[in-house]
């Protein structure tokens, strides 16, 4: 029987690593191309003013909110609303109140509420917000990720799957890798001589 060291130095092992690397590189390049070539759906974000008028208490609140413990923000400043009211997103933060979708499963709901409450504390970076919320609600982070995957593919035809993957990759970059949101480039810009 070969020792571990002999195996690591074997041709088979090196070939395996090379194949793994090529598959990884091919996947990333494909996702980057899909992300840029797929048409970005114009998101019709609701106005924070309208959301507050419809769902939140109307008492005066200082702008910006005074520093507040996270749990207090979650208890008093996070409001559950129908998903269609927040443009189909899981949640949005509006300086004084955060709004989260009413169809999120239990743990995901707690995670998204924490995520939006961290935004209300003044954190604007999505990746940092996600890490902070994920440390508090690890199960919720996993559930939100799985639910978002399920939700993205729901009611999409197979021909639309490539663009769904492109969109998911875009979100992954924003929420986990702290990379800037790339605007898709049209065929015109791709093919015009520079
Ligand atoms: Zn966010």
Describe the overall structure.
The protein is built from nine helices and three strands; from the N terminus they run ααααβββααααα. Mean pLDDT is 89; it is low at 186-194. β2 and β3 (97-101) form a beta hairpin. The protein has a three-stranded mixed sheet with strand order 1-3-2, sandwiched between helices. The protein is elongated and about 75 Å long. It has helices spanning 4-9, 11-37, 48-55, 70-77, 106-120, 126-136, 138-153, 161-176, 187-191; strands at residues 78-81, 91-94, 97-101. It has a domain at 48-154: 2-Layer Sandwich (Zincin-like). With 194 residues, it is mainly α. The protein binds zinc ion (ZN). The site of zinc ion (ZN) has 4 residues, from α5 and α6.
Question: Could you list some keywords that capture this structure?
Answer:
194 residues, Zincin-like, 3-stranded mixed sheet, binds zinc ion, 58% helix, disordered C terminus, 7% strand, 9 helices, mainly alpha, elongated
In short:
The chain is mainly α.
Per DSSP E runs of 2 or more residues, the count of β-strands stands at: 3
Helix content: 55-70%
**Low-confidence blocks of residues:** 186-194
Number of alpha- plus pi-helical segments: 9
C-alpha-based Rg, rounded: 21 Å
Q: Name the strands of the widest sheet in spatial order.
A: 1-3-2
For the record, give the distance between the C-alpha atoms at the N and C termini, rounded to a whole number: 59 Å
Order of helices and strands: HHHHEEEHHHHH
Quaternary structure: single chain
Ligand names: zinc ion
Largest sheet: 3 strands, mixed
Q: What share of the residues does DSSP label as strand, in percent?
A: 5-15%
